[in-house]
Amino acid sequence: MTNQITNPVSVEAPSEGLLGSITLESVGAAAGVSRSTVSRVVNGSPNVSQKTVDAVMKAIADLGYVHNRVAAALASKQASVVTALIPEDLDLFFKDPYFHAMISGIQDHFASTNLVLNLMIASRDSFPKVLSSLAGGQSDGVLVFSHHTEHQLVDALERRMPVVFGGRPVLGDEAHSYVDVDNSAASKMATEYLIGLGCKHIAAITGPQDMPSAADRAAGYLQAVRAAGVTGPLVESDFTAEGGARAALELLDGNEPFDAVFAANDLMARAAVKTFIARGLRVPEDIAVVGFDDSPAAVSEHPYLTTVKQDAYEQGRSMAQMLQEQLLMHPREARVIQLPTELVIRETA
């Protein structure tokens, strides 16, 4: 994780607002050269005199240009730093194996490069402060997980440096780079499997609906049940085991009947199974359950979860590779990778 990148890092012109207004033009004016010459210097072009390089580097340092550390790294052949930004509470990060698998994929990819990986976990209260730190030159590129609608400030960060999202970003997918699965189609597949088993009242335990992945999974479930004329209650939860248990109790204590549950991740599905069994119900005989992720929670105890498999490790590895490519690309172009999913049938359905 502490190797260095030998290829030059492309730098885009900065924007305004939270991230300041120092541009390549500003650097060029201070150094007495053109914007294109500044770009060649910070991108490591050999066709620039040492005198010009020195003038540009001095202007960068004097102006406090946010990418001064990148340019210095290029000049000294030291490491560039990228950040994995997880805007969630620390407790959720350590309990959810999905994050662990993704970080492992990122780490394994960067191990063979000259990039240093920082991990930043930001709660709701600290998120603006963390973004400000990143925008101030603490990182050359960012990998963003668990993007919520309240995190539009990432858009400003993205105008300043390469950003790759783990999952479809809140801001839309036209001009953003991300790695994801088709959450809607995968959830529809899982729900249709329950319908095919003969379940007539299929409930759903969703993730937070301010997250695109959670909203897409809920949409896939709704598409399947509506097309089949199947009914069932829907409870919004938070992707945690505790939230899954609370949602299961809400279903059990509610007025709507259900004979199956689609849970939007394995942690909630596992907690729901435990809750049903504790109430004296049989899984899957009384209530069939399907989860999502195929994480270690799916096979942590019997009955093993039937679940949608997505490769979180490969998602992390692909994100890291994409960010590395974005660092070397000028101008940058948005890219999207959609990974496959499959339904893994085990004991709960």
Topology of helices and strands:
Blueprint: H1 24-31, H2 35-42, H3 50-63, H4 68-76, E1 80-86, H5 90-95, H6 97-110, E2 115-121, H7 127-138, E3 141-144, H8 153-158, E4 163-166, E5 177-181, H9 183-196, E6 202-206, H10 212-228, E7 234-236, H11 241-253, E8 260-263, H12 266-278, E9 288-293, E10 306-309, H13 312-327, E11 336-339, E12 342-344
Parallel strand pairs: 1-2, 1-3, 3-4, 4-5, 5-11, 6-7, 6-8, 8-9, 9-10
Antiparallel strand pairs: 10-12
Helix pairs in contact: 1-2, 1-3, 6-13, 9-10, 11-12
Descriptive account of the structure:
With 349 residues, this protein is an alpha/beta fold. The chain is 43% helix and 16% strand. Strand 3 (141-144), helix 8 and strand 4 form a beta-alpha-beta unit. The longest helix has 17 residues, at 212-228. The two termini are 41 Å apart. Mean pLDDT is 83; it is low at 1-20 and 68-72.
Distance between the termini: 41 Å
> How many helices?
13
**Order of strands side by side in the largest beta sheet?**
2-1-3-4-5-11
Q: What is the total tally of β strands?
A: 12
List keywords for this structure.
disordered N terminus; six-stranded parallel beta sheet; single chain; alpha/beta
